[in-house]
Design goal:
The chain is of the alpha+beta class. It is 37% helix and 25% strand. A hairpin with a 6-residue loop joins β2 and β3. α7 packs antiparallel against α8.
């Protein structure tokens, strides 16, 4: 075979291999996040404060341990300082931000649990007494600085960036919800999310937001079902079906 023909064959082979690898790639996963209401209900300790110190576990352990000076305890019985451990590997939304938060003295709102209290959550009790209620940074540590953009989303898909709104809503949820209800995840509803949230919150394939199954959530779903906008109607109907299925299974 001539060198020129051999080159054409090699190019064809490369194109086939590229196409095959593209097809073989898994589709992007939906982004699982917590609504502010669910994070507040699901956490047993919620504090507002600043990072005092940060250290990392070994590369094998992939854990970050941080100490927070507490300015306010919104939920739980902790005062002064608190040490917590959190996963330091993806899915992080960005590079590890703890050192920046410490340097800039950022005020944070942390949604935590005692390590080891839940079998479904990562147990980092050998590193620190507390951990994020889902084990990850996303949705568990909110920066109380409007300049940092959207930090949380309400169960009606309203984004929140104002520290005052975030704190007020968290306190309201804690005060009005002494017991934890069931949780469901909303359908991704890409067309609806596009109207509500920026791309980094929607994720590459949508968002499945964890919401509490409360009377307020049922009212929100009914409002969606009676909307004049077809996309919102669809979201309402899909969510109502999920609620019905969830209630039946319990």
């Amino acid at each position: 075979m001539r060198r020129k023909d051999m080159g054409k064959v090699m190019i064809a082979v490369l194109w086939v291999a590229l196409a095959a690898s593209t097809v073989a790639q898994p589709s992007p996963s939906l982004g699982n996040r917590d609504s502010l209401e669910w994070a507040a209900m699901d956490s047993t300790v919620i504090v507002r404060g600043k990072i005092e110190s940060v250290r990392e576990g070994s590369n094998r352990e992939a854990v970050i341990i941080a100490t927070v000076v507490i300015d306010e305890t919104l939920k739980g019985d902790v005062k002064g300082k608190l040490e917590f451990a959190i996963e330091s590997t993806p899915p992080f939304d960005q590079a590890n931000p703890f050192e920046c938060w410490k340097k800039d003295r950022k005020e944070l709102l942390l949604f935590l649990i005692k390590n080891g209290e839940r079998p479904e959550a990562p147990d980092y009790s050998r590193f620190a007494p507390y951990g994020a209620h889902t084990g990850r940074i996303t949705g568990n540590i909110l920066v109380l600085d409007k300049a940092d953009g959207i930090q949380a989303v309400r169960m009606d898909l309203t984004p929140l960036s104002s520290p005052e709104q975030i704190l007020s809503m968290t306190r309201t949820v804690i005060k009005g919800a002494p017991s934890k209800p069931q949780m469901i995840r909303l359908p991704s509803a890409p067309s609806v999310l596009q109207q509500c949230l920026p791309g980094e919150w929607r994720g590459p394939a949508g968002l499945r937001l964890a919401v509490p199954l409360t009377d307020e959530m049922r009212t929100i779903v009914q409002k969606w079902q009676h909307s004049n906008v077809p996309e919102w109607q669809s979201l309402g109907n899909q969510t109502a079906a999920l609620i019905k299925k969830s209630v039946a299974s319990h």
